[in-house]
């Protein structure tokens, strides 16, 4: 079944029933957020709520809504968390653990039940960072997260994810539940065309990238149904090439500062996806 959503606000609501979660283990890690209503109750029957998380050990990325104790002097004067090195790399000091705790508290207080991990290629190449990522995955699941997606932007990156998933001793909590593409084929210079994007999806489906990925659902973040190479014309014709290969679609729907306009901004593309 194809699920349609957007990065920040769902453009087509899809409900999912979330199994009961014992949050007592979550509080052991994060402490009890004092402003969270029903803090000791499980999250049940919530909509799909996702969050992208950057794990790149070399890239300092600021995201809104978090407040760490220490920020670099170059940080903007807004509530932000530095998460990259500071979430996984405990060698950076106690700030790493503090940031993990605050991120988990944010996840619970906003009833987020799905995470998508960016920048896995560098993390999976580092044994220590991989272990730290797995610890965070366990903690996130204890805090109500039921789905963790692995983001990839090339066949090499998905092969790396496949190698990780092929480990027969990998604990269930440390396995990825879904794959998510980070390929903006509609942008000239992305390195992908409509056809090569579809070919990558077919290679993942067939197991030629990695047999360990065959049974994982595939999601894609999509912007526009255009072919910068000009080989395929018409939104519907372009969507028909790869939409049938996907299980879930996230449509780009950034529309100024008024989220009430987001649905109208995506209506045409939603129809295209539904007809593919």
Q: What would you note in describing this structure?
A:
This is GH18 domain-containing protein. Residues 1-20 form the signal peptide. The chain is α/β, with parallel strands linked by helices and 276 residues long. Among the domains are: 46-55 and 80-164, Transcription Regulator spoIIAA (2-Layer Sandwich), CATH 3.30.750; 183-275. The protein is built from 9 helices and 9 strands. It has helices at residues 24-30, 85-88, 95-109, 120-124, 127-142, 155-165, 194-206, 235-242, 262-275; strands spanning 3-6, 50-54, 61-64, 80-83, 114-118, 147-152, 178-181, 218-222, 248-251. The strands form 2 sheets. It has a 7-stranded parallel beta sheet with strand order 1-9-8-7-6-5-2. Helix 8 (235-242) packs across helix 9 (262-275). The protein is globular. Mean pLDDT is 77; it is low at 1-20, 33-45 and 57-85.
Low-confidence stretches: 1-20, 33-45, 57-85
Name the shape in a single word: globular
**From the coordinates shown, what is the CATH architecture of the domain at 46-55 and 80-164?**
2-Layer Sandwich
Largest sheet: number of strands, sense, barrel closure: 7 strands, parallel
The ordered H/E elements are EHEEEHHEHHEHEHEHEH
**Fraction of residues in H or I helices:** 25-40%
> Roughly how many Å is the radius of gyration?
19 Å
CATH topology of the domain at 46-55 and 80-164: Transcription Regulator spoIIAA
The neighbouring-strand order within the major sheet is 1-9-8-7-6-5-2
Number of strands: 9
The averaged pLDDT comes out at 77
Instruction: Tell me the number of helical segments per DSSP (H or I, 4 or more residues long).
Output: 9
Query: How far is it from the N-terminal to the C-terminal residue, by CA?
Result: 13 Å
Structural class designation: alpha/beta
CATH class of the domain at 46-55 and 80-164: Alpha Beta
Strand content: 5-15%
Protein name: GH18 domain-containing protein
Keywords: Signal
Signal peptide: 1-20
